Amino acid sequence: MEDHRLKAFCLVCELKSFSKAAVAKFMTQSAMSHLIKNLEEELGVKLLNRQGKTVLPTAAGKTFYAHAKKILDQYKSLGNAVYASANIVKGPLSLGATTTISTYLLPQVFYSFSRKHPEVSIELALSNTEKIINDLREGKIEMGIVEGNLKNLSVHSEVIAEDEIVIIASDDNPLTANKAVDHHDLVKQAFIMPEPGSGTREFIDDFLRGIGMSLESINISMILGSPELIMQMVKSGVGISLVSKWSAFQALKDGSIKLLHFSGKRLRRKFYLIYLGKEPATIAARAFAQFIKEYRFFAPF
Question: pLDDT grade, residue 138 (50/70/90)?
């Protein structure tokens, strides 16, 4: 349940753009502008100002936004309470997930879950592990699906899948001729690293420290926030990288990259479902948590 005009107004304020808000609401920009104009005419007050391409609330708009958010939260609570009392799995479900998980694990999960619970509307925000935990604590999302070593004791976490970090290089990198590599080989290579704050970056940093290599001792040629872009840069020969086996699978299959086997070590980690409290707050979130914990993921190799 929600008032579409209030939702539209809040989106414009948060995204500071009519066009971005329109995309988020799956509507045209003119339709979005009409909703806001209708609100302003009904109230007789200007709520938004355009400053170039940026849209900002007026003083009255800021007041309206604060109250609108509270009303939307009450609509959400009302709907969830009604669905729970009737034991109906329905309503919005706000999730945060890392790019790797969103790209390679969640499409199959969402397809199966939506077939079982078609009246649940999923809102997915992509971010790194650190921001997902912060968004969860601030109430911006109901649950998160993250990777890496969780050190935040304020969230409840449950393992949903296993992962392995693999070292990859372009198919013409001389190291691919070695049966195994060690830290002496790695220190001579250019590294393409994921962004700080991501679960993968934290895992890599811990791994390098564990084998006696500091970040200062390696040549970091690039820092990228997209696993897909990291794969493309490795293919082109810019450097080597450490990535999830899920993201490396297709490129390994077509031969455009090769695995580098580190002497006597496999780099394993886990994917986690996280939320606050003993269980998720809404019936839709509880249904999704139960579903994904029972889901059988088929590892790529």
Answer: confident
- DSSP annotation of 262 reads B
Task: Name the burial class of residue 126, with classes exposed (0-12), middle (13-18) and buried (19+) by CB atoms within 10 angstroms of its CB.
Answer: middle
The residues spanned by each domain of the chain are 1-88, 91-301
CATH class of 1-88: mainly alpha
221 token code pair: 């040629």
Q: Decide yes or no: CATH 3.40.50.2000 for domain 91-301.
A: no
CA distance 175 to 211: 18
CB atoms within 10 A of CB 24: 17
Closest listed residue to residue 176, CA positions, set 237, 254, 248: 237
What pTM, to 2 d.p., does this model score? 0.75
Mean pLDDT along residues 164-181: 94
Tell me how far apart the alpha carbons of residues 40 and 22 are, in angstroms, rounded to a whole number.
18
Q: Directed axis angle between helix 4-15 and helix 59-85, to 10°?
A: 130
List pLDDT tens digits, range 249-276: 989 989 999 999 998 778 999 999 999 9
